Amino acid sequence: MSDEDLGEEEDTGQWIGEYEGDRNEKLERHGIGKAILPNKDTYEGSYMYGKRDGYGVYRFHTKAARNARYQGEYYQARKQGMGKFIYPDGSRYEGQWVNDLKDGSGKYYYTNGDVYEGEWSKGLRHGKGRYTYAADKTFYEGSWRKGKWEGFGEFHFCNYKYVGRFRDNKMYGYGKFVFDTRCELHGQYFLDDKDALVLMDLATEAALVRIDEDKKGGEDETADDTEPQYRMPPSPPPIGPTHFEASQLTRLYVMTPEEEEEARLVEQLNSLREKVEAQIKAKQEAEMRRADAEAARWARLEAERVTEEILAEAEEIHGEEEHAGKPVDVPKEGEEEAIDKEEAEAGGGSDAEEGEPGPVGSSAVLEGSETALQEAEGGEEAPAE
């Protein structure tokens, strides 16, 4: 079952399925949460702005994919980064993902015990890798293209190995068998049916082929049609059975200590280069993720600001329209004096309530002060008598 067949249920909406966890001010799933989707699949992990983003665990519960699960990194609701996928048949993949597909370096464990470890591209074995067969412990190590042996590689048997060219999962072209008896058998693999396809050597495989494109409207009519356009062939065609024809048997070439040291240094250098390239790629992906998240955040803030401004302008316009349409009350003759009188009375009452003395209150206070002064003077004279 391919990665495309095991598609995960969408849960980017606010109320799709059942959800328990954090939300943002927009009520989007944001933070840590757990969701039960309509097809009964479950996801538990990190969300960002309503989408699976960060580390999480997705478990399949449909009949076709029961017991399958993915645990690893997400980005914008897609598997992206490092992750582990356990398939319904029990096989599993551990490695890098890009856009929901195996892409980068990874290791696949098959149910029959076979193991592939190497590079992937768009869900297929592509690049450098090693496939080990559990039944007889043989293995192929070399170049892969779109899931098949393609290019230079080595196939190791129990006591000898083949080193040479491969195509369509077959030994094809020039190569040699290297035996433990310290000898090499050089030769070439041919098609059993030589009329089916002419043998292609390295120069022919690398040759450019012309693109036959129909001229359509809108293209540059001034282009020089005499100069052909070229491209590399997308993938070599499949081939039939092959057979080996030996050319010569030689002694096994043994490298000198200097050559062995040079080979070791070259291997270390290539390994170091691969690690540095992987670190640079991971750093670039992390920076892209941070930049995308920051851009999304600023876009949301800008949208909120513009929305608030539009609402404020709408309220202001609505208020002006209401004020312009409201009738103005004009007091009639004789009503102005009554209104002034009522305001004066209300003002006096409020002054009294607040404790501010009026004319009467001021006289009472003055009389009380004189009486208190006389009593004090009388009290001071009493001891003298």
| Helix percentage range | 25-40%
Mean pLDDT: 76
Number of H- or I-type helical stretches = 4
| Uncertain ranges | 197-234, 350-362, 380-385
Overall shape: it is elongated
Order of helices and strands: EEEEEEEEEEEEEEEHEEEHHH
Largest sheet: 16 strands, antiparallel
Structural class: alpha+beta
Q: Total strand count, please?
A: 18
Name the beta content range: 35-45%
Report how far the terminal alpha carbons are from each other.
Answer: 126 Å
**Gyration radius over CA:** 44 Å
Biggest β-sheet: strands ordered side by side in the sheet: 1-2-3-4-5-6-7-8-9-10-11-12-13-14-15-18
Please describe what this structure looks like.
The chain has helices at 202-206, 257-325, 335-353, 359-381, and strands at 18-23, 29-36, 42-48, 51-59, 69-75, 78-86, 92-98, 101-109, 115-121, 124-132, 139-145, 148-156, 160-167, 170-179, 183-191, 209-210, 230-231, 242-251. The model is unreliable at 197-234, 350-362 and 380-385 (pLDDT under 50). It is an alpha+beta fold. The termini are far apart. Residues 259-301 form a coiled coil. Residues 1-12, 334-356 have a biased composition (Acidic residues).
